[in-house]
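Protein data sheet
==================
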Amino acid sequence: MTRTTPVRPKVSDPALQTAIDEAGPNIENYYTNLDGVSADIKSVEQYLTSSGIRIPAEVHLPGKGIELEGEIDVLENYSGRIWQDEEAIQWTADPKNIDRWRLLWTKRRKWGELELCERVAIAGPTFNGPVEPLEDKPLLETPVDVRLRAHKQLGELIRVVSKSVEIQPHETSWAESDDIPF
């Protein structure tokens, strides 16, 4: 596919023209932005690899709501299983090569229970059921939409990794001190 920069159109509807003008930079710089996202992911992965940190860390991506396995009846009641898909980015060992650590994307389905009476939850939602792995892959190998959403959480993942190796200064209790607090 040839990469071309789209030409921003001029339209007759002023509200539509405003929307095009506001959105234009993102649309016109799509490939440049995508290349930057991929470069950032590579750079962060190389940074963490060279750091020697081999402590797993995870940050969840904003998700969707709860899905019902069945249907709400005409009286707006429901009693049954529910599920919610959960996506996360991780700094962890590559499942295909445990000696190599990578930035991974994972998608899991959590199962639970919910009971509604006239659309009001009277029990649940609870997610005590099994967690079903759906997909795991290196972040760099994910579809564009996943990389774009994950990129927004990379800074938080770096902070979580940092916290995992942070050394807290030892606090001296008053009993170990020469200063008696009275």
Remarks:
- The longest helix spans residues 30-51.
- DSSP finds four helices and six strands in the chain.
- The mean pLDDT is 89.
- Strands lie at 57-60, 67-68, 78-94, 97-117, 120-126, 131-138.
